[in-house]
From TrEMBL:
Gene3D superfamilies the UniProt entry points to: 2,3-Dihydroxybiphenyl 1,2-Dioxygenase, domain 1
UniProt xrefs under InterPro entries: Glyas_Bleomycin-R_OHBP_Dase, Glyas_Fos-R_dOase_dom, VOC_core
PROSITE patterns reported in the protein's UniProt record: VOC
Domain named VOC: residues: 1-129
Protein name according to UniProt: VOC family protein
Organism this protein belongs to: Lysobacter yangpyeongensis
Amino acid sequence: MLDHMGITVADFAASKAFYERALAPLGYGPVMEVTPEMSGSDARYLGFGANGKPDFWIGAGAGMPVTHDGLHIAFSARSRVAVDAFHQAALAAGARDNGAPGLRPHYHPNYYGAFVIDPNGHNIEAVCHLPESDS
């Protein structure tokens, strides 16, 4: 349903460093950067993704307020091990724990997720929907 999404961040450099570290265990990395020269303003953007397609964007610039009331983003993980690695990497990169890796059977029996609060206050999750034997 969704092609891509973006969030505004308060500190572009810090958020870039955070997401590079936190998303690497999930197989996502920087794919495309839009500089102020390219945007024609002071705004800059960085798209993260896999296989050359940016799916998740961060952006900063004048007139781009950081809002995070109720914002929650869940990234798909290929395995439970990747969820664990995301959580460890995000905490090491400066996130706050918002739910250790584990099963969340109230969603469904194989829902394995981990939650962190990023440097901008956003609730970020990695989730694997596969049974343990398949992940």
